[in-house]
Amino acid sequence: MVNPLKKFTISNVSKKLNKINLKVSLSHQRPFPNRSLLSHYHFKKQFVKIFPDGSIQGGYPKMITSLIDFSFIRSLVADRYSTFGHPCYDPPSLFLLDLFRYIDGHQHMSKFLEILRDKDRGRAYRIYTGISMHHIPSEGTFSNFRIRLGESLYNQIFHTLVDIFHKLEMITFKILTHDGTLYPTWARYKGCTYFCNQCASITVQDVIPKVRNRILYRLNNLSNNNLGSEVRVYTECPSQCFPEDVKKPKIELFAFKLAFSNGEPTKEQRNTAILFGVEEELAKQHLCIQTIRSNVSSVNPDDGSITIQCPKLPKDTDALPCEIGQTTFKER
Known about the structure:
The chain is α+β, with helices and mostly antiparallel strands. It has 2 domains: 6-167, no CATH class; 197-313, no CATH class. It has helices at residues 10-26, 59-67, 72-77, 91-103, 109-117, 123-129, 139-167, 207-219, 267-275, 279-284, and strands at residues 202-204, 231-236, 250-260, 287-294, 296-300, 305-308, 322-324, 327-329. A 3-stranded antiparallel β-sheet has the order 1-6-5, with no helix packed on it. A hairpin with a 4-residue loop joins strand 5 and strand 6. The chain is globular.
């Protein structure tokens, strides 16, 4: 029996992309005018390893930049730059950094740039995009880049990527559905309806020993395919603003996974292992703790407590009340 999904293996996709990348490159031949670049993106085809649990060695940024050549972006945006302009960042570098921020779930550009500036944590991002430690872009650089390109041209880059996936047969455009039903909503409001001042700084007790026990349990049961799977640590919302008939939600403190360390663990990974008291246990099995998401603002190693900012805290606390039928939603 022929496996219909075989054509979507990394090996087959990589072979197809060799031809697709060439066609895309040949159809975008306009030279980029500015030769004074603060970064320089190079497409480098690399082997992509997928583990049995579905995780990707190096994550999605490595897989994307190892398979797809983004050099076509220079040709698409060439008319927005001048030959005699000031030194600028290579357009594929900025586009990919913006893309990686969304892919890896960094909500705020400022936080993402902190990682990019970090010698260890930002190394992969810098390598994949051709950015050096001496020329890290600022938030304003990305704002100016989007303004320079405009919405239409920015979308054109995405349309080129969509066309690549169409050629790979990952999307076909054969089925198109939509739901035309309209519901009145409080469109400007995003976040928890029952937030209060406490939500910006919540102290959670006895987290460190509990996480340590979960890590040790996984280390003692690696044969059960625990390696690489995501571990999420939650706490119950402490807010007193919820009505009695509304169930309080769980708040995610942070998420991590155990993974093989490529060489020496980074400074962040070592500090995390020391914090949870599992440095020796991890080192024996050549493993490290990889942080996936975190809402932690401070840690008290003396009593094992941490302080977090609730991720459900709304960004727009000035949103206006909105009436739907007889129900009125108000700020709390």
